Amino acid sequence: MNALTDLTLAEARAALVKRDVSAVELTQSFLTAIEALNPRLNAYITVTPEQALAQAHAAEAALARGEARPLTGIPLAIKDLFCTAGIRTTAASRILGNFVPPYESTVTANLLRDGAVFLGKANLDEFAMGSSNANSAFGGVENPWHREGEPDTALVPGGSSGGSAAAVAARLALGATATDTGGSIRQPAAFCGIAGIKPTYGRVSRFGIVAFASSLDQAGPVARTVEDCAILLGSMAGFDARDSTSADLPVPDFAAACARGVKGLRIGIPKEYRLDGMATEIEALWQQGIAWLRDAGATTVEISLPHTKYALPTYYIVAPAEASSNLARYDGVRFGLREEGEDLKDLYERTRRAGFGEEVRRRILIGTYVLSAGYYDAYYLKAQRVRALIKRDFDEAWGKVDAILTPATPSAAFGRDEKQNDPVAMYLNDVFTVTANLAGIPGLSVPAGLDAKGLPLGLQVLGRPFDEETVFAVGHAIERAARFTATPSLRAAA
Amino acid sequence: MSYTLEGATGPWEVVIGLEVHAQITSQAKLFSGAATEFGAEPNSQVSFVDAGFPGMLPVINGECVAQAVRTGLGLNAKVNLWSRFDRKNYFYADLPQGYQISQFEFPVIGTGEIEITLADGSVKNIGITRLHLEQDAGKSLHDQHPSKSYIDLNRSGVALMEIVSEPDLRSPEEAGAYLTKLRQILRYLGTCDGNMEQGSLRADVNVSVRKAGEGFRTRCEVKNVNSIRYVMQAVEAEARRQIEVWEEGGEVVQETRLFDTSRGVTRSMRSKEDAHDYRYFPDPDLPPLVIEAAWVEQLKAALPELPDARRARYVGEYGLTPYDAHVLTLEKETAAFYETVAKGRDPKVAANWVTGDFFAGLNRTGRSIANSPVSAGDLGALLDLLKDNTLSGKLAKEVLEVMVDTGRPPAEIVEQRGMRQVTDTGAIEAVIDDVMARNADKVAEYRGGKDKLFGFFVGQTMKAMQGKGNPTLVNDLLKRKLG
Known about the structure:
The complex is a heterodimer. Chain A is an alpha/beta fold. In chain A, 38% of the residues lie in helices and 13% in strands. The longest helix of chain A is centred in the last third of the chain and has 21 residues, at 377-397. The mean pLDDT of chain A is 96. In chain B, the strands form four sheets. In chain B, strands 1, 2, 6, 7, 10, 11, 12, 13 and 14 form a nine-stranded mixed sheet that branches. In chain B, strands 5-4-15 form a three-stranded antiparallel sheet, with no helix packed on it. A two-stranded antiparallel ribbon of chain B has the order 3-16. The longest helix of chain B has 20 residues, at 228-247. Chain A binds chain B through residues 82-83, 89, 91, 96, 99, 101-103, 105, 206-211, 213-215, 241-245, 321-322, 324-325, 327-329, 331, 333-335, 344-345, 348, 368, 371-373, 376, 380, and chain B through 48, 51-60, 87, 89, 91-93, 96-99, 149, 151, 277, 279-281, 284-287.
């Protein structure tokens, strides 16, 4: 029999319900794996073994009573951006290094309601700002995958949900919560060879999630399979009166939608996503994806999303602008880090200088600049207009197609020391993913193949607002055709 | 004759606009469920939203929006069915989020106007530019510790309406009348208690001066003035300062100033160069505020009668003088008291008693309508005793004094103290006969043509009856017997 940590979430759930596996045993296997691998991978900032085992015992009792809920006994990693009552929540920042929230985020509360077990808090880029997980005050995360023949060259897991993706890929959790502001679920999922979905804006409550850019932030799951993501999203999603941007819509049965198939679906292939100088293996993978979907009964249609090229600059105005305001509350007055000063202004300056890392400071500066008197119209207002055009591109596309297929990232995972000194090169990682955040539409990254060095590559499926079901159906079809069975070099029981 | 201030170079006009911050009367804050009671223990009415904790989100309180719409309707203003919340960004220790949620570009209420009445009886319309919703900040306490400041977040997130007037006001009197009228409307609507001492109503006063016929000159803003009297004083002090600057060949610079109430002068708080760049932008946590026209109609239909309408009704229906109508409608509570007294009775008599002896009694005992010792029902009952001749006017005044002092109902006082007036003609005639017998000389003089002595006989008769004789009967009977 395979190690328990190799089970998918759906398999583990079936085994728990059939009582082939005990919830305590399952959780213990993951805790043991974390103990073995986390010192190297650094996927978790905080591990909570006592809490996890207590939850596992409770789950075991519920299972014994035949009271299984959708996630009873399922061990998960929680991105350390979700507030968890009584458990330190850092956003991977020194400024929140000692912050223990007295409240639970809606997403984690929903998961607990459904019986999940929390193994700990996953690492991330500070305040979810980054594409490599290098911007963490608690140290970077190592991607469990390595280039063939280079086992000692540490690669990044992507970001900002690098800890979540690495933990799931290395079998240190059955699934994880993540958030996505410009690609922070989909890019690390692609880099780590797992699936991840950013749902429609408003599908999942933002209450209790440390905010980065409020109009773009959306929480979603990462997991090893598309179906696992669908199961997790079913628990995470739902209307929440405490988030004014939450959509008052019923939560469909996402897991059931995975098996719908793609027969008769029209899949759009946007020509603007074919970049100059794009790696041939990315292009080849994309063509392969098109072929798989055709084989499964879908038709593909070339479409145009003409404002795509403006998406990245638009994103890097809107997101920092909102961040500069959202992060003003970290001032040392009420919670978190405080560096005493001569007076109030000095206290602010010392606290924020000591508390924020370089990338966070850079984005606060950019955001403050673009909102300043005299620059607002040229930057922020113009960016909002372009954002509306990007959304309109998609609205028009939905008249012709049911889903859109693109590459997830322009490359496979890169080395820890590559790109670090060039913020703009780093920002280019989000080129395929930011459009979904700007338009508020769902986007799923599915592992679809390996590059020449044996690193995973992902394809992205975009869908209509609140039509995650079609996105899951298309993603599932790709997953089935791709037969992605490769595993990372660093993983539990390996 | 319009108001001017005399400078060395001649008369100057004063131009004033007011920005009034009115705390909305509501159970909960603008974006959180925390309570809003005044005077609670510091930091006892603070939710995690109000304290700006990570991951906390604002959710609009519908009742606060309803109060803003009611106020807009009361100011005859345009209700904007689409408005938006913006963030006003600045750092301060009592501003937990690092921004204030306000409405910068698209306020919920647009232009309106209110009518003010001045002491000379003239009437003037003052334009309202806008009314918008915003949240209050907390309070910094600098006097609790030698080297530290304390922060009380009870006010943080409390709903405010900022009501901005056009620069239509031209004198301290007009500014005072405007603020008085605005407060009266807010109190009638029940949308703000108007309590300036507790800070529920505060005014920022924009003042400039100019020569007749000129356009506007540079204005200064005097911040946070917390009484109507201080607003009037601040206008004059600031106008005089500016006149001096201009006349000395200087230039008034746009700046924010504070009014020093003890010295009666304004002083600079911060200049335009030091002004914050608030970096306003739409709050991404809040969708635009969309209001249904039908809901506005519902609120409109349920609005209470406002002071102007009520005053007009008192004059038109009740036949009161404009002055009495004005006095009786100044406070909603007074008007309600008056209407209870007047119900089913002569409204003019009721008005005379309320504004006359009743107000005098309140003044004498330092009470107000809110804690009046005499209920409106009891005052009405007193008027009934007057009408059915149980009491004379003079007796009724005496009974009312006892009512003010004891809080007892009039019938009980009349009974216990035997204050019922005598209307038995036989009894009165017997007293008159006695008085005439004892003053035969005066009777002769009267009958000889000394008409003035009539008052003497009235006085003697009433004295003998301890003031309880019905004055009309006493008069009639005396005339007949002496005649």
